[in-house]
Amino acid sequence: MARPRSFDTDQAISNAMQVFWTHGYEGASLPDLLDGMGLTRGSLYKAFTDKKTLFLKVLDHYEGAAVQAAVSLLNDTSISDGTERIMKLFTSSYLAVTDGDRRGCLLCTAAAGPSMYDDEITAVVSRGLNTMRDGIEVALEASPKHADMSKAERHALADMLTAQYIGLRTMARARIDIETLRNAVRSVGVMLA
Amino acid sequence: MARPRSFDTDQAISNAMQVFWTHGYEGASLPDLLDGMGLTRGSLYKAFTDKKTLFLKVLDHYEGAAVQAAVSLLNDTSISDGTERIMKLFTSSYLAVTDGDRRGCLLCTAAAGPSMYDDEITAVVSRGLNTMRDGIEVALEASPKHADMSKAERHALADMLTAQYIGLRTMARARIDIETLRNAVRSVGVMLA
DNA sequence: ACAATTTGGAACCAATCGGTACAATACACG
DNA sequence: CGTGTATTGTACCGATTGGTTCCAAATTGT
Fold it and tell me: Which of B38, B82, B100, B148 could covalently link to B139 via disulfide, CB atoms 3.0 to 4.6 Å apart?
């Protein structure tokens, strides 16, 4: 009936995610995105309406990929001790930096930026962060060391660890010395032990 | 000899700080700044060279005001227990939110933004965060509960608490539920107790 | 009074921003 | 093979970005 789309939508969103991840929402210009996604203005606006809509789709994608990966790690029953899973999450954040990835967490970056004055973006971001939080809580429930805590206390501890996670990933983006990051992760381990 | 400056430079910087604090570096436009500072383009560029230079001055000002206030709280020997001082710092961050201040920490916001791809800004930001970190470490040294730790362990714990602080203030900006913030602070208290 | 300087303000700049209009293009189906 | 149709590329849009330049008015010390 008509000319088919020459690009894969998911792939395009995934490419856009990389651009937003490095530059942030307001820092990523249309040319940046077009370049990274490998398509032209017309195609982008036809397929994704506008920049903000694209960003919301990207956040969804990030939630479905990066956040979901973290959550399933936190739910991985093949590691019986929940605190071990949590430490694996924090350690992997540290290892990303040693591998040269200083971009931090897309969600955490968006959480700090001026884009948070937009209600829709705010909603998606805090939903994503809450998903992380819930994952941490699940892992805590599978931790023998925290079995005697009250549900409320465990809930609060999950909140604290979420803040810890956000702080760690923000520090990574801020080019804080790698030793400091290592120390922070190590101390989380000591605290949970 | 010549006409003196009709505005107070420090006051102007302080006003600029408010604008950057709410909008972030790239989010604050020239009109925003001129409006908030109450002066015109000509005066601003004569006095502060350009936007980035102004922002660096603002960061210095923030370090001399907000960060220094936090540090002197952390050094306040009238509160003998260092952990109490640290908890006061975290609690005050929480109380800022209950008072309706959702702007978070200027340094932490700058740490997450695309402005971190600028070396000069990066340097000033991480210097400020390190100052905070050192303050926390001093407080820890004045804590009986942490007197038996090794210097290295205490250092690492300070790093962790810095990440915690950044995360907390970022969550405040991200409009995370106030209960979650309260829980996070409470858990820090439990952890340090 | 005079020289020095800063003021507010407007005009102006090139560059870039996000977004749109539209003609050329390339495909799927009858 | 055509023809309808959605996609594509590009030229273009007005608005805004940070930054400059000019100038008359204002305010000081000498």
Answer: B82
